[in-house]
Amino acid sequence: MNEIIELEGKYVLQTYIRPPIVFTDGKGLTLVDSEGKEYLDFTSGIAVTALGHSDEEWVTAVSNQAAKLTHVSNLYHTAPQAQLAQRLVENSFADRVYFCNSGAEANEAALKFARKVSYAAGAAGKTKIITFTGGFHGRTMGALSTTYKDKYRAPFAPLVPNVEFATFNDVESATAAIDDTVCAVIVEPVQGEGGVHAADPAFLHALRALCDKHNALLIFDEVQCGLGRTGTLWAHEQTGVTPDMMTLAKPLAGGLPIGATLMTQAVADTIKPGDHGSTFAAGALICTAANVVFDRVNQLDFLAQVRENGTYLRAQLQAIPSEKIVEVRGTGLLAAMEMKTAVAPLISAARQNGLILISAGENTLRFAPALVVTKDDVETAVAILTKLIMEN
Questions:
Q1: CATH number of the domain at 59-297, please?
Q2: Which among 86, 90, 179, 314 would be 20 to 30 A from 157, CA to CA?
Q3: Burial 71-110 (b: 16+ CB within 10 A, else e)
Q4: pLDDT digits (tens, 9 = 90+) for 129-170
Q5: Does the model's pTM come out above 0.70?
Q6: How many H-runs (helices) and E-runs (strands) does the chain carry?
Q7: Domain 2-55+300-391 sits in CATH 2.30.30.140
Q8: 3-state secondary structure of 362
Q9: Which of 372, 38, 352 is CA-nearest to residue 229?
Q10: Is the Cβ–Cβ distance between 5 and 23 less than 8 Å?
Q11: Segments making up each domain of the chain, as ranges
Q12: 8 A C-beta contact, residue 263 and residue 253
């Protein structure tokens, strides 16, 4: 273990603070480190490994595809890419999909496409993008420009111009910000990094109306909250609001890198060959993995189980008898526990006790286990957490 940690410290750019653990194996919700210690994983790689670690069907499909064909670039057709596109389009509002490699890239594409729609229409000056307090859309320059937290943005200024922040869940603020100079509005139906705050359906309905009024595009960032995480295939289904574009990534290939930007035909009609591209996007291996994940998640009984276990998780968290807890909130299997104090020490103590958690802000624990989590897993995790909260 120490040798690997020393190698990382010597050769890897230090953009992350990692605990002194080297994970070597995973199965389901269990992670195993180099010393043989087991951990209950309630992060799923930040809402990525939707089927858990080393799911048998996923492993078999990826192994078989790797033995056949991995990559040929987007200069050529492959069946898994076309099949994944069909699945996404036929099970959403969208008519077309653009593939990339991450959530940040999916959002970059959506922002570029929004600017292109205005350009194609000859709408000079219609370039403003509205985003919201608490939002997180990635760390590349365009996506970072729409990400709210100043500590992420300030060191890299000046960022992409004509980006303005309005107040999340505040219709009056949005109304004041959205006018005829706006080409797009980007929002998470459920904010993840920002603390697991759901958008009020009335707020999203208002955004839809404002975008229609001012001929702007509405973009839903479902990188973290999409593909079953909230108990419906898409988080925005629960609000009755339809976007013009939607971005996906984290869970789509079950741990392999993929992003997707879904769009209406009206948006697609403005995008021409050469307007955007990606060497690695939607290779045969990645899309084979994504097809397995999509087919498993896109089942009514699977989604019902997500809702049931998500409700059970929140109920168990709410039952912890501590005045240190401010609020438990969430939807499906994306939950948060806001505390009166910083949660970093609690995350460290949980890890030492075999439970992997992450934060969503300084005072908030975030729970995003694999979508195959069981009630027994929930009870084990909450028992560890309860003990630590009551002891400290």
A1: 3.40.640.10
A2: 179
A3: eeebeeebebbeebbebbeeebbbebbbbbbbbbbbbbbb
A4: 999 999 999 999 999 999 999 999 999 999 999 999 999 999
A5: yes
A6: 14, 17
A7: no
A8: coil
A9: 372
A10: no
A11: 2-55+300-391, 59-297
A12: no
